[in-house]
Design goal:
By secondary structure, this protein is α+β, with helices and mostly antiparallel strands. The strands form 17 sheets. A 5-stranded mixed sheet has the order 35-34-33-43-37, with no helix packed on it. It has a 4-stranded mixed sheet with strand order 38-39-40-42.
C-alpha cells in the first residue's frame, strides 16, 4: 500500500490531508475548525459500484436522481475565504414501481486543476456520471467504467505559468489535455408503437379526451333533465327548461290565468276576461304536451308548446252579441207554444193548439277573430285591440223546423191513454197530456226536440186517476178561534181510496208518450184515510162588516147580532134564573141542531125534560141559544141557564150564525 500525504502546512486552516491506498485515492474535505468532512471518493466509488451490478436500466446514482448531473465528489474549494459546504452522503433511493429502463451511465474520477491563486493550494478529485448516447431502450447493458484516481498535489505560486503545476514543490510538465468523452453507444432501432414525440399522436389523444369529456357531459345532462322539460322547451314563449312537472304546471297556470282581450266594433271598445267569453285553460293537457315534447333521453328539444284552451262557442257568441248587438237586431229562433181554450159555460177542454212563432233574420258578431286572438295568445303572442264585425244571418231554428216540432207534439198528445180500476175507467184528454210535453231548441242541430217532462207527469197523472177511478177521502173540518183554541169539528171526515203504485203508472205513461204508442192499463186502489183541515174563524171583529159575533147583555136582556162593528139584529131574551144563572165570558158556537131533546137538573135536584126544542146553538157545554115557545113574554131571568128567544127570532139566529161564531155574555 502506498500512501501519499499532503503536508499539513500546505493547506492552511483545513484538515490534515489526503490519502491514497493501493492506487485508489481518498480525499477528505476539510471544514473550518478541523472538523472531519465527507469522503467524496468513497461516495463516488460506491455510486460506481452500484451502477456496475449488472442490473441495466434499474436507476441512476443518487446524484443523477436528484437531477444535479454531478456526483458527490464535486470539487471543493478549500480556501479559507470560501469554506466548502458539507456534502450530504448519497442516500439510497427506493426502486421505482414501474419505469422504463434507465440509460447506461459511465462513471469516472478525474483530476481537475483550476487556475491557481497566489499562495493557495487546491486539490480536486471529481467523480463524473456521463450518460451514454441517448437511447429509448438499450439493447444491451453498458458496464460503467471507473477511471483510476491518481493523487495530484498542485501548488499555485504567484507568477507561475498557468500551464505549469508544482507537485510537492517540484515543477511538473504542462497539464495534460482534457480526457475525451467515450464514443457514443449506437442507438438501437426504435420499437414500433407509441411515440411520445409524434405530434399527430398527441392530437389523437387530445381528440379522444375531448370526446370522452363530451360523453361524460352528455350523460350528466341526460341525468339532470330526466323527468324535466328539455333544453329549448318553452310554453307560450316562456322558457321552461329544467322545470319539473309541478313547476311546469305552476308556470302554465300563471300564464293562463287572467288572460284578457280588448275588442272594438263600431267605435265601441270592450275588454273581456277569458272566462266571460267561454275560454278556459286546460292546465293538465298543456303539462302533458310539454312533457311529451320532452320525452326521450336526448336533453335538448326545441319546441314552443302553446297553452291548451277550451272554447265554448255559444257562450262566446252570447257575450259578444250582448256587448255589441241590441236585442231588436239579433236573429230570433222560431218557437212553439201551447194554447188551450174552453167553450163558454163548459168545463171540458174544447181546443188544444201548438202555436208556432216564426223566425226572424238578424245581426250577430263574427267570433272568428276572437278565437284567433286567443289562439295567438296561447302561443305567446300579445295581440292588440281586435277589430270585430257583424254578420246578417238566419237564426239556427227556422219556422219550418218549429212547425215540424209542433206537428209532432200534436200527434203525441192525441194518443190513446186509458186507465181502469174496478168498474171505473178513464181516458186522458189531449189538454191533460199536452202540458207534459217539452220543447228544447238545439241551435247546433237547427231543430226543436219534443220531449216528456217526467216530473210534470208525476205531479199530474196520479191526481187525475184518484179523482176519476178512485174515491177521494173527505177531510174533517176543525174550527179554531183566533186565539188558537179548537172550537169544534165543523164537518166529519170520510175515508176514501187512491191508486196504488203511482210511480209504476207514471213510468208507463212516460214510456208510451215518448214512443208515441197507445196505453191501456189496469190500476189497483188502496184505502186512503181522511185528514183534518184546520179552519180558522173570526178575527175581524173591530171593523165594519167584519166577522160575525153575538152579544148577550144580561142587564138589558138583549141578544144583539153583529158583523164586526155593524149591528144586524137585536132581540129581547130570557136568561138564567138566579139559582141557575147564564155563564159569563167569550165563547164560540161549537154545534147546532134544528131540533134537539133537552134535559137537565133543577135547583132542588129534580130533573126536567123538553123534547124537540128547535133552533139550538150550543156555545159552551150545555148552554145554548134556542127557541122557547112555552114563554109568552121575554126580558127577565127564569131559564135553567140557556138564552131563550121566540121561535121566530131563534130561527133567525140559527140561520145567520154558523159554527164558530163568537158569543160574548156579560152584565
Amino acid at each position: 500500500m502506498t500512501e501519499l500525504v499532503i503536508p499539513d502546512d500546505t493547506v492552511s486552516g483545513h484538515t490534515k490531508g489526503a490519502h491514497v491506498y493501493n492506487g485508489e485515492s481518498s480525499v477528505t474535505s476539510a471544514t473550518p475548525g478541523g472538523e472531519p468532512g465527507v469522503d467524496k471518493v468513497s461516495a463516488a466509488k460506491a455510486a460506481a459500484a452500484k451502477t456496475s451490478t449488472g442490473k441495466a436500466g434499474r436507476g441512476k446514482t443518487a446524484a443523477a436522481k436528484a437531477g444535479t448531473g454531478k456526483t458527490a465528489g464535486q470539487a471543493v474549494d478549500q480556501s479559507p475565504q470560501a469554506p466548502a459546504p458539507v456534502a450530504a452522503a448519497a442516500q439510497p433511493q427506493p426502486p421505482p414501481i414501474f419505469k422504463a429502463p434507465a440509460k447506461p451511465v459511465e462513471h469516472a474520477v478525474k483530476p481537475v486543476v483550476t487556475p491557481p491563486d497566489a499562495g493557495q493550494t487546491h486539490v480536486f478529485m471529481a467523480v463524473t456520471n456521463e450518460p451514454a448516447a441517448d437511447v429509448d431502450e438499450p439493447t444491451e447493458v453498458v458496464k460503467p467504467v471507473v477511471a483510476a484516481v491518481k493523487p495530484v498535489v498542485a501548488t499555485a505560486k504567484p507568477g507561475a505559468d498557468d500551464n505549469t503545476l508544482t507537485v510537492l514543490g517540484v515543477p511538473t510538465a504542462p497539464k495534460p489535455p482534457a480526457a475525451k468523452d467515450p464514443p457514443p453507444v449506437p442507438r438501437p432501432r426504435p420499437r414500433r408503437g407509441f411515440n411520445r414525440h409524434n405530434p399527430l399522436m398527441w392530437l389523437l389523444v387530445g381528440a379522444l379526451v375531448l370526446v370522452l369529456a363530451g360523453v361524460i357531459g352528455l350523460l350528466v345532462a341526460v341525468k339532470h333533465f330526466e323527468g324535466k322539460a328539455k333544453i329549448g322547451t318553452s310554453v307560450a314563449g316562456e322558457d321552461v327548461a329544467g322545470q319539473t312537472v309541478d313547476q311546469v304546471r305552476a308556470t302554465v297556470q300563471r300564464l293562463g290565468s287572467g288572460m284578457q282581450l280588448t275588442t272594438e266594433l263600431g267605435g265601441k271598445t270592450v275588454q273581456f276576461d277569458m272566462g266571460k267569453l267561454g275560454v278556459t285553460l286546460d292546465a293538465q293537457k298543456t303539462v302533458d304536451q310539454v312533457m311529451a315534447a320532452s320525452a326521450g333521453w336526448w336533453p335538448m328539444h326545441v319546441a314552443n308548446v302553446p297553452l291548451a284552451l277550451n272554447f265554448n262557442p255559444d257562450k262566446m257568441q252570447q257575450a259578444l252579441d250582448d256587448a255589441f248587438v241590441v236585442a231588436a237586431d239579433r236573429p230570433k229562433d222560431a218557437a212553439v207554444s201551447l194554447e188551450v181554450t174552453t167553450d163558454a159555460g163548459s168545463s171540458s177542454f174544447s181546443n188544444v193548439k201548438f202555436a208556432v212563432t216564426p223566425s226572424v233574420q238578424g245581426k250577430t258578431v263574427d267570433t272568428a277573430p276572437v278565437t284567433a286572438a286567443f289562439t295567438a295568445m296561447a302561443g305567446g303572442r300579445k295581440p292588440s285591440t281586435v277589430p270585430l264585425s257583424t254578420l246578417t244571418i238566419d237564426p239556427p231554428i227556422t219556422t219550418d223546423k218549429a212547425s215540424s216540432a209542433a206537428d209532432k207534439a200534436d200527434q203525441m198528445s192525441k194518443g190513446q191513454f186509458k186507465f181502469t180500476s174496478g168498474n171505473k175507467s178513464y181516458s186522458l184528454q189531449q189538454a191533460e197530456v199536452a202540458p207534459w210535453l217539452t220543447f228544447t231548441p238545439n241551435d247546433a242541430a237547427g231543430q226543436i226536440a219534443v220531449g216528456v217532462d217526467q216530473a210534470a207527469v208525476a205531479a199530474g197523472l196520479p191526481g187525475i186517476l184518484n179523482a176519476e177511478v178512485a174515491t177521494p177521502p173527505v177531510n174533517q173540518q176543525v174550527l179554531y178561534s183566533p186565539e188558537g183554541q179548537q172550537i169544534a169539528v165543523d164537518s166529519p171526515g170520510k175515508d176514501g181510496t187512491q191508486v196504488a203504485n203511482p210511480d209504476k203508472i207514471v213510468q208507463a205513461m212516460v214510456t208510451a208518450l215518448s214512443s208515441q204508442q197507445p196505453l191501456s192499463m189496469s190500476v189497483s186502489t188502496v184505502t186512503k184515510a181522511f185528514g183534518t183541515d184546520k179552519v180558522p174563524v173570526g178575527g175581524a171583529y173591530d171593523q165594519p162588516n167584519g166577522s160575525k159575533w153575538i152579544e148577550i147583555n144580561q142587564t138589558t136582556f138583549q141578544v144583539i147580532m153583529w158583523e164586526g162593528t155593524t149591528k144586524i139584529h137585536q132581540f129581547t131574551c130570557v136568561t138564567g134564573a138566579p139559582k141557575t144563572p147564564t155563564i159569563d165570558g167569550t165563547f164560540y158556537v161549537y154545534i147546532k141542531y134544528a131540533s134537539k131533546d133537552m134535559r137537565g137538573t133543577n135547583a132542588d135536584g129534580s130533573t126536567w125534560f123538553a123534547g124537540g126544542v128547535q133552533w139550538v146553538c150550543f156555545f159552551i157545554r150545555g148552554f145554548a141559544i134556542h127557541a122557547a115557545p112555552w114563554r109568552a113574554t121575554f126580558g127577565y131571568r127564569a131559564s135553567h141557564g140557556c138564552v131563550n128567544l121566540s121561535t121566530a127570532n131563534a130561527k133567525i139566529v140559527y140561520d145567520w150564525a154558523p159554527v164558530g161564531t163568537r158569543v160574548v155574555v156579560h152584565w
